[in-house]
């Protein structure tokens, strides 16, 4: 299966958002202060990763974002 670059970056961003949501929820559910702080920090990192993927996408010329890539070219 192949995906266009736009899809790849959108999937990457969604994975990071899901991770941030998971860590925020975990932070809300734990009572140990150090664990809460760790989960909050991890959520922040996930959002930074999402921002980085968005920046990477913007660096690709718009006319190339719909090009398809094969994630496993050695098949």
Beta-strand residue percentage: 5-15%
Q: Which H/E pattern describes the elements?
A: EHHE
Individual helix count: 2
Distance between the termini: 11 Å
Q: Spans with pLDDT under 50 lasting ≥5 residues? A: none
Rg over CA atoms = 16 Å
Mean pLDDT: 92
Shape: elongated
Which structural class do you get from the secondary structure elements?
Answer: mainly alpha
What does this structure look like?
The mean pLDDT is 92. This protein has two helices and two strands; from the N terminus they run E-H-H-E. The protein has a two-stranded antiparallel ribbon with strand order 1-2. 4% of the residues are buried. Helix 1 packs antiparallel against helix 2. The protein is 69% helix and 5% strand. By secondary structure, it is mostly helical.
Short description:
Helices cover 69% and strands 5% of the residues. It has 75 residues and is mainly alpha-helical.
What's the structural blueprint in terms of helices and strands?
Elements: E1 3-4, H1 5-29, H2 33-59, E2 68-69
Antiparallel strand pairs: 1-2
Helix pairs in contact: 1-2
List keywords for this structure.
75 residues; mainly alpha; two-stranded antiparallel sheet; elongated
């Amino acid at each position: 299966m192949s995906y266009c670059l736009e899809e790849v970056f959108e999937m990457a961003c969604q994975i990071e958002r899901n991770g941030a949501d998971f860590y925020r929820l975990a932070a809300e559910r734990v009572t140990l202060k150090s664990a809460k702080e760790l989960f909050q920090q991890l959520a922040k990192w996930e959002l930074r990763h999402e921002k980085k993927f968005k920046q990477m996408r913007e660096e690709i010329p718009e006319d190339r974002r719909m090009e398809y890539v094969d994630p496993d070219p050695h098949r």
